[in-house]
Amino acid sequence: MTTASLFLAVFLACAVEAVEATTIVLAAGTARGWRSAAQGLGAALVVLAAIVAALGPALTVVPLTGLRVVVGTLLLIFGLQWLRKAILRASGHKALHDENALYQRELAAAGAAATTGRGVVHDWYAFTLSFKGVLLEGLEVAFIAVTFGSNQRDIPMAAIAAIAAVLVVAGVGLAVRAPLARVPENTMKFVVGVMLTGFGTFWAAEGAGGDWPGHDASLLVLVPAIAIFSLALVGLLRRGNRPWSRAAAPATEVS
Amino acid sequence: MAARIRAFFAFWYDFFVGDDWRVALGVVAAVAATAAIHAVLPAWWLLPLAVAVLLPVTLWRAIRGH
What we know:
heterodimer; A: mainly alpha; 8 helices; B: mainly alpha; 0% strand
């Protein structure tokens, strides 16, 4: 795996999660006030930084073979779950993720909630909404960055890719003050699902003793093969009944 | 307190296992089988085969509403 592919994989995965977190923070800030939303955002980033700072160095001292079998297995399970959702969405069997719908729903809920303060936090609802949104989406980002980085023994590059993705998405989101509905989020999730499944398969097999023909070069076959297989499954599933096809229903799914 | 502990474990279960526990079980079994057979024959193909089986099966179950 080259530095460029490590950067691309982590950047894409982190960008997808950052889009969802940005939508939630925007809803909290717009409906309730930016101060408490920013406090929630800051608190979540501190917790995430602590998790990465603790896990990153710890994983670098684990022997590479053991690390790859555990992390590869987790990434493969993770990747198959992402692919499952992505294929169901692409084939019309699950509603597409829609940032506008999520934003409007969070906005309505935030507008209806009462205002109570705790300590230095003026609006507890805005704080917790922002904190939970960033922490929950950020945990996946942290997991992907730490596992990809530790497997390649290049956690700094994975961290740079993760931070770059968050800065780009959050910067654009704050500049336009609107959910990033034009980001091709469902397509990006499909790509990330393929990459997580591909790298998870490669690392788990290698860690368990499977010797790949061509070693790292086998990824150049494995990842495209998983992409083609997934697209073929989308094509097959599109032939059947599609309760969430664009013509049948609006896209409103959240996660 | 019990509800919070349950919610904590439910979160991590959902985080790592997701919607279909059979996928997680199938992956763990395939990795274990790879480790078991690699000494006697090439085992790299087992996980791609597991992906080729598990993905259609979990999609089929999702569509059937299981």
